Amino acid sequence: MSTYLVTVPVDFTDEPSTDLLSALNDSLSKHDPQQSTFNPDASRQEFVTHDPSTGMHLFRVKVDADDTEGAENKARVLVNGALLDAGHTVLTAETDTRTIHAEPWDAAADK
Known about the structure:
3 helices; 5-stranded antiparallel β-sheet; 111 residues
């Protein structure tokens, strides 16, 4: 089993509020890469970024899995669970499974 940093793009039908991003952050905080030695000085909410070129919000979570595919699946389930907990369904927020990206934690930390 290895540790991966996974970027999960999410497309919201409406721009998410600061309160929603905070709720999602709380739900995913144990998988928040900013809370590790990777970037100990970053604020918690920075693990969600907005990509203006695509309009997507990018969630970066740290997961343990046997391989890249397993890491991507696990991260997708985590983010979808957080979205459901915050009251979103696939009608209001959807993960883009075509562009989920996982990389080994050591490679991500070296960047």
